[in-house]
């Protein structure tokens, strides 16, 4: 298949979760014999922090403004087997017009930010990457969240066919790695600063750090403000490119997963970081949300924490018990949550969308 994608970014992993997901999915699709073309507006924010300059075996189209690329985009869309518009693409509306008008293949919208989309709709706010007419013109709508979100796309946005396509991990990039001294910690957390994660992060990392001053805690990520409640035993790494994620995860006894509030409220929305840590063989303690047990088995593959006491109890577990859980989570991830698995699911969903009646399509995976 020739698959043309109009997205936020694949070239820079700085401050967003889209790039790593698109890289893993594109790589798996290309390995499967599919042609990938990715259109990305070349904005300064990502250009200054670019950590990928080409898609091996594919084509990256960086453009300055939509008018400069519209004719080429139309030509690519017109003979594509699949054209995909993604959430937070800065030219999603213009690209959508081109795809709906010119694409003779499947026209797909992929919402990588489903909980945010639904929260804005619930609040009566507009969604900048979705046209006022909704999503009824697309042949298939893919959602980063499952559960009730799928019905919401039908009810609120007129989507005709909806299916979940969850997060995933490229196990060639995220795999067990040698621990590094400067990432050593009892508990680590990797994630861009987000105000709606702050309350949970303070409960599950800051509070345990304050109560256990002899332990070392480590945070890695971008955009943390000066007023963050640091303590002397919380260390900080400003930004880690994907190539260093594995060493980061593997250097601590336990790593923390904290989910954005909208994702918790929506449920059935695992973050990419969760799968990355599991693929690296890191023992994981996570906040709690509906649907998590469909991806990992609590107490067998992952530890759940509702407060600081749960985190401190997890830190008291022996290394063998933690490593046993980590091994099980890694095995589950390789079987069910790899980029290759999601690429296979995507192709299955695309083929199904060509034949099925409107409705919620079943995912091949979870």
Structure write-up:
- Helix 1 crosses helix 13 and helix 10 (272-279) crosses helix 12.
- The chain has an eight-stranded parallel β-sheet, sandwiched between helices.
- Helices cover 38% and strands 17% of the residues.
- It has helices at 18-31, 44-47, 66-78, 92-102, 114-122, 149-157, 195-211, 245-250, 261-266, 272-279, 308-315, 319-336, 339-353, and strands at 2-6, 35-41, 59-63, 82-86, 106-111, 140-143, 161-164, 185-190, 217-220, 234-237, 252-257, 284-286, 303-304, 359-360.
- It has 366 residues and is of the alpha/beta class.
- The model has no long low-confidence stretch (mean pLDDT 94).
Task: Write the SSE topology.
Elements: E1 2-6, H1 18-31, E2 35-41, H2 44-47, E3 59-63, H3 66-78, E4 82-86, H4 92-102, E5 106-111, H5 114-122, E6 140-143, H6 149-157, E7 161-164, E8 185-190, H7 195-211, E9 217-220, E10 234-237, H8 245-250, E11 252-257, H9 261-266, H10 272-279, E12 284-286, E13 303-304, H11 308-315, H12 319-336, H13 339-353, E14 359-360
Parallel strand pairs: 1-2, 1-4, 2-3, 4-5, 5-6, 6-7, 7-14, 8-9, 8-11, 9-10, 11-12, 12-13
Helix pairs in contact: 1-13, 3-4, 5-6, 7-11, 10-12
